[in-house]
Design brief:
By secondary structure, the chain is an alpha/beta fold. The chain folds into four domains: about 170 residues, Rossmann fold, CATH 3.40.50.300; about 90 residues, Helicase, Ruva Protein, domain 3 (Orthogonal Bundle); about 90 residues, Zinc Finger, Delta Prime, domain 3; about 90 residues, post-AAA+ oligomerization domain-like, CATH 1.10.3710. About 50% of the residues lie in helices and about 5% in strands. Strand 2, helix 6 and strand 3 form a beta-alpha-beta unit. Helix 12 packs antiparallel against helix 13, helix 13 crosses helix 14 and helix 18 packs antiparallel against helix 19. The protein starts with a helix and ends with a helix.
Length: about 475
């Protein structure tokens, strides 16, 4: 079935696709066989094929009633929703996770139930950016999914394990769309150049221009076709102006206009930042950000900061990562780094973006260029490991609380030495439980301020333990 023949006839609700529609819309696949890069989902008998191309009514009823499509931008999530709607003339309704609320969800579901009861067509409810829906909004979908009042197709660029509620995810078939390869994108571009729905041979793409376009697309079909459309428009306009200028008349058809490398470069300023704020890209970039600060590569750290800022990451999330890095990676080698990071986090709350980027940059530079020590981090984890292993003997009697009646009769506090009454402010006595006497958790490094801490700590331990 042709998707565009179905518009307005057998698939009510699908958007109209006319000659003035963007190239990426005009070139949207009409059948599963035209879908690029997702062969792992299109095997014969696969759940997706059963949903789009049911052999009969029984096969349709056996198909899943809720599908979550997870993948990067431009990999075909919206296309698959349209194809599901066109099968057997199902009605199509689209909601946006950004603009819609519980009221809109319930209205669509109620209308779908009414149509089913009166013998009307089934409804495909497509929710784009479902990760934007709150828990309440996602919960409102559950009765419709369980009772098959709608066929739910939910699309997200963010990891559903983090962005979709467990009840909805457990009732849905999760299909993971893969990023398009360069060959996939190249094939789509060449099809758009030749296809009557696309540019119909009006332009030709130079080899180096094609390679650059594919590289800029970054696996995003929509972006590739958008760049191609802009470049083709510039090439056709330039060719027409040149011909008219040479003859003083409208140009004859002398063959396709050539889209060269310079034309593609003029058509787009910069490739889009590939980053999704709650999925794998989010965690990969955040991980690289922290590891760059840890590794003292201030320039790399600023690069990853810029990627998060440009992608619209919550500056409070960035600030929290810097605070953690200041404590975990710098620690006592430069205690002022933590003060800088905390001050930056507070400043971000006060001023917001875009000025907060400057504050964040200062904190990143301080943490990245500071001497590094994870001794405090290692020390507390060693102590926690011992406690979990059962090494937690009784508190020494002289350290126990004496602020309740009868405590002194139990020997609590007997023999305790008040540190401030002792030379150097250090009292020689046992503080750790018997089982842990002599155990050392904190081993300061010889870097930055911690070098001074190490020297003083050695003297203190000699007083405490007589080492």
């Amino acid at each position: 079935m042709d998707l565009f023949d179905a518009v307005g006839s057998t698939a009510e609700g699908l958007p109209d696709v006319g000659a003035s529609a963007p190239l990426a819309v005009r070139m949207r696949p009409r059948t599963l066989d035209e879908v690029a890069g997702q062969d792992h989902l299109l095997e014969p008998g696969s759940p997706l094929r059963r949903l789009v191309e049911p052999a009969d009514e029984t096969a349709r009823r056996a198909a899943p009633s809720s599908v979550v499509l997870w993948g990067p931008p431009g990999t075909g999530k919206t296309t698959l929703a349209y194809l599901i709607a066109t099968s057997s003339g199902r009605r199509f309704v689209e909601l946006s996770g950004v603009a819609s609320g519980v009221k809109e969800v319930r209205a669509v579901v109620a209308d779908a139930r009414r149509r089913l009861v009166t013998g009307g067509p089934e409804t495909v409810l497509f929710i784009d950016e479902v990760h934007r829906f709150s828990t309440t909004q996602q919960d409102a979908l559950l009765p419709a999914v369980e009772n098959r009042w709608v066929t739910l197709v939910a699309a997200t660029t963010e990891n559903p394990s983090f962005s979709v509620t467990a009840p909805l995810l457990s009732r849905s078939l999760l299909l993971t769309l893969r990023p398009l390869t360069d060959d996939d994108v190249r094939g789509l571009v060449r099809r758009a150049l030749a296809d009557e729905r696309g540019l119909a041979g009006a332009v030709a793409l130079a080899d180096d221009a094609e390679a650059h376009l594919v590289r800029l697309a970054g696996g995003d079909a929509r972006r590739a076709l958008t760049i191609l459309e802009a470049a083709a428009g510039a090439a056709l306009e330039g060719a027409g102006a040149a011909a008219a200028g040479a003859t003083g008349e409208a140009p004859d058809d002398d063959g396709p206009a050539v889209v060269d490398l310079a034309t593609v470069e003029r058509a787009v300023d910069v490739a889009a930042v590939r980053y999704d704020r709650a999925g794998d890209q989010h965690y990969d970039v955040a991980s690289a950000f922290i590891k760059s600060m840890r590794g003292s590569d201030v320039d790399a750290a600023l690069h990853y900061l810029a990627r998060m800022v440009v992608a619209g990451e919550d500056p409070r999330f960035i600030a929290r990562r810097i605070v953690i890095a200041a404590a975990e990676e710098v620690g006592m080698a430069d205690p002022s780094a933590l003060r800088t990071a905390v001050a930056a986090a507070q400043a971000v709350q006060l001023i917001g973006m875009p000025e907060a980027r400057i504050v964040l940059a200062e904190a990143v530079i301080h943490v990245a260029t500071a001497p590094k020590s994870n001794a405090a981090y290692v020390a507390v984890d060693r102590a926690i490991a011992d406690v979990r292993a059962g090494k937690a003997g009784p508190v020494p009697a002289h350290l126990r609380d004496t602020h309740y009646p009868g405590a002194e009769r139990l020997g609590h506090g007997a023999g305790y030495r008040y540190a401030h009454d002792e030379p150097h402010g250090v009292a020689r006595q046992q503080y750790a439980p018997d089982e842990l006497v002599g155990v050392r958790y904190y081993e300061p490094s010889d870097r930055g301020h911690e070098r001074e801490v190490a020297a003083r700590l050695e003297r203190v331990r000699q007083i405490l333990h007589g080492d």
